[in-house]
Structures are given as C-alpha cells and as structure tokens.
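Example 9 (inverse folding). The structure is encoded as follows.
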C-alpha cells in the first residue's frame, strides 16, 4: 500500500461528548492532518460522504444518540466500495472483548480504550494513515 502524506488524511472525531472531542483534537494537534468533528453517527456518515480527503480516519465512540458507533460500523461494512478510503479507530470505554463479541471487531482498524493514552492514539492514527 502506498503511503499518503498525513496532510492528505482527514481525522473525523465522532463522539457525542464535546469535551471528549476537544481532548482528542488536542492530543492529535501535533500531526499535520485536517480534523473535523461529528457528534453522532449520522453526522459522521454525512461528513465521510462529503469529504474530498484521500483517506479518512474515523475516531468513533460506540455509545452515542441518534446513530451509535455500532450502527456506523454496520453501515460502512454493508457498503465497502463506498467507504474504501475510510479507516475506523474505535475509541470507547467499552471493553474490547465485549465489542468483539458483536462480530464487528473485524471491520475496524484499531481499538483505543478510554481514558485515552496519547502515545497509543498517535501510533494507531499513524498506522491507519499508511
């Protein structure tokens, strides 16, 4: 797979809690990447559809109103060609083992537990950008 410059990637921070979005944005500010925010899954999917970025990295909370993270993952899974440039990093307080039992663990690229460790998050975002 060819490597894109980080500036060609978009990080889409999707979390219903504004403070969580601000904290994640602050943690990632040293990366030369564009960032957008979404407060629920429906906003997330709309932002992906409207983006011109060559790669989109979605930091996705699982527990949100309107459309939760599991619904977003199911939607992306159901239309792989429409979302081929999208990578998902689940950022959640839910245990990964519980999430993996949902059967959707194979459709994400990384999992980061809350509270988020900055270095772990940066590593996962960089891995998803290549």
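The amino acid assigned to each position is listed next.
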């Amino acid at each position: 797979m060819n490597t894109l410059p980080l500036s060609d990637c978009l990080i889409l921070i999707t979390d219903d809690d504004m403070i969580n979005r601000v904290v994640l944005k602050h943690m990632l500010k040293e990366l030369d990447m564009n960032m957008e925010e979404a407060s629920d899954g429906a906003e997330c999917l709309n932002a992906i559809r409207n983006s011109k970025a060559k790669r989109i990295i979605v930091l996705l909370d699982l527990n949100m109103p309107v459309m939760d993270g599991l619904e977003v993952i199911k939607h992306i899974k159901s239309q792989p060609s429409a979302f081929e440039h999208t990578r998902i990093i689940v950022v959640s307080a839910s245990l990964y083992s519980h999430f993996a039992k949902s059967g959707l663990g194979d459709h994400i690229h990384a999992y980061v537990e809350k509270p988020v460790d900055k270095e772990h998050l940066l590593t996962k975002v960089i891995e998803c950008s290549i």
